[in-house]
Design brief:
Blueprint: H1 9-15, E1 18-20, E2 26-28, H2 100-124, H3 140-157, H4 161-198, H5 209-215, H6 217-227, H7 230-251
Antiparallel strand pairs: 1-2
Length: 253
């Protein structure tokens, strides 16, 4: 048999991982695993844990303003107008400011001037040498008179639909007065021609156009109605249409 080999207590304690305290008590020496360079520290549980990424402002975990936190001051909002049906009302038309009184006064002057020009043109185009005299009717005279009155209304009155109506009425009145005064001028020419044929001082008995128009207006009215036809009234209706149309176009420029 091999000779017995004895081991000292120091050797046994070293092999078994124990340390003999000088007083005789045994204490276990903690064994630690060596750390790898560049690695992560060992956490309880045996698994390495990655460092948490930095949290962004306003993300999860960030305290939100609520109860117990000071509230940021909010800007007061302007009240929004509410419209019925979901659509805003159309913007009011913008037009030039005008003077209605001045526009009406200018339209009256244009009416008188237009009536006289209409009567003069009607008398100039009538053939008074024939029996009965032949009167030529035309539409352009009424259109020109109506446009003249509409121009005065729009230039001085601005965008005012009430003045357009006044201009239409004055245009119709201008053509009507022009027709009647034109017939008075035609009757004066007819009587003058007849008095020249008779002779013997008959020319002194001939009535003037103003006397026929003012002193014998009822007779003039009857004579005009007898000679008028549907075409005469149609041509007269063109004057107010021209007045409104001209005023509308000038006001919308």
């Amino acid at each position: 048999m091999f000779p017995a080999r004895s081991r000292s207590s120091t050797q046994l304690s070293t092999e078994r991982g124990l340390y003999l305290h000088p007083r005789g008590n045994f204490m276990s020496q903690n064994w630690q695993q060596p750390q790898q360079p560049g690695g992560y520290p060992q956490q309880p549980g045996g698994y390495p844990q990655q460092p948490a990424p930095p949290q962004q402002a306003g993300g999860y975990g960030t305290p939100q303003p609520g109860y117990g936190y000071p509230q940021a001051p909010q800007q007061p909002q302007q009240p929004q107008p509410q419209y019925g049906g979901g659509f805003p009302p159309p913007a009011p038309p913008v037009g030039r400011p005008g003077n209605p009184l001045l526009a009406v006064g200018a339209a009256i002057v244009a009416t008188l001037v237009g009536a006289f020009l209409y009567a003069f043109l009607l008398s100039a185009m009538a053939d008074t040498d024939k029996t009965p005299p032949e009167v030529t009717q035309f539409a352009y005279a009424g259109v020109v008179v109506g446009a003249l009155i509409g121009l005065a209304v729009a230039k001085l009155g601005g965008r005012n639909t009430g003045l357009w109506v006044v201009g239409a009425v004055l245009a119709l009145a201008a053509v009507f007065l022009g027709e009647l005064y034109g017939y008075a001028m035609i009757l004066h020419d007819v009587m003058s021609n007849y008095a020249d044929k008779i002779g013997g001082g008959a020319s002194s008995q001939v009535l003037s156009s103003n006397e026929i128009f003012f002193d014998h207006f009822s007779d003039l009215w009857k004579s005009w109605k007898e000679d008028s036809d549907a075409l005469t009234y149609i041509f007269m209706a063109l004057a107010p249409v021209a007045a409104v149309s001209t005023a509308y176009r000038i006001s919308n420029r």
